Amino acid sequence: MHSTMILLGVLFGLLCQAYTLPVKNSTGLHEAKVRLRRTYSGGISNEFTDHDHDDMNAMDQILEVNRRLRFLRGMSFRDGDIASSYFRSAITCPGNACLWPKAVDGFVYVPFMLSPIYEDMDRITIETGMQDITAGTCIRFVPRTQEASFLDIQPRYGCWSFLGQTGGSQTLSLQTPGCMWSGVAAHEFMHALGFVHEQSRSDRDHYVSIVWKNIMADQAHNFRKQATNNLNSPYDYNSVMHYGRYAFSEDGGPTIIPRPDPYVPIGQRDGPSNLDLHKINVLYNCGVN
């Protein structure tokens, strides 16, 4: 009888311990799935991808397309989509040597060649990206005739551009269909005009916090600040040149948080913001507001 009571006591104690064990939280599981959905930020693929597509800005789309660019032979990429063998910004290059020249009529003509591989809708998308810039600036994209320096727009792998005018034929890649957003085209054209990403500005720490612990270890270099001339222009959360909130995320957590209001939207995909156009006008001395 005594041994039976002891056994019942042991069993009762085990049952009590079982009831005190933590239960797997379904809310936590849901949050984990939400974090995994950020495919375009950290390169995590699963069945939730399509649901986030409407939330993507231009840079998010570029990073999604460019996930394997680091493996291309003979190409060096910085900040996700800037192709170069060395880093330079037309905003800081000595004597504005990286800028496209201004003609005597006050316009800046940027000659281009468009690959015949593009279909009609691709051409319309790319030309819309051009028009979104020319509509508010003195920049004019013109078909190349005999100009020595020009943009060679090709549907290569990924969305990328060299920074500023490099001289001669310079490739600007807009892969189809991945890069066929007019906002993505405008983003790459702004690189070709000499602009770095908005969160690379020298004064960015006043406006955003970089969450270094959430960034993929081998991608932290993409968040370095540059010694930019900010053209006496306000920081632009709405710039088409701004990274998304989850760019290069390790596990889906945010890598960029606006300050002081963390809920301010950053980046967009529709095309250059008013401040983007203003900065082009200032950089190229367009003489218009």
Automatic annotation (TrEMBL):
Zn(2+) binds at residues 187, 191, 197. GO terms for molecular function: metalloendopeptidase activity; zinc ion binding. Its EC number is 3.4.24.-. Coiled coil: none annotated. SUPFAM superfamilies: Metalloproteases ('zincins'), catalytic domain (SSF55486). Binds 1 zinc ion per subunit. Pfam families: Astacin. Residues 1-20 form the signal peptide. Residues 89-287 form the Peptidase M12A domain. The active site is at 188. One of its GO terms (biological process) is proteolysis. Its cofactor is Zn(2+). Gene3D superfamilies: Collagenase (Catalytic Domain). Keywords: Disulfide bond, Hydrolase, Metal-binding, Metalloprotease, Protease, Signal, Zinc. PANTHER family: DISCOIDIN, CUB, EGF, LAMININ , AND ZINC METALLOPROTEASE DOMAIN CONTAINING (PTHR10127), METALLOENDOPEPTIDASE (PTHR10127:SF838). This is Metalloendopeptidase. It comes from Gymnodraco acuticeps (Antarctic dragonfish). The gene is LOC117556827.
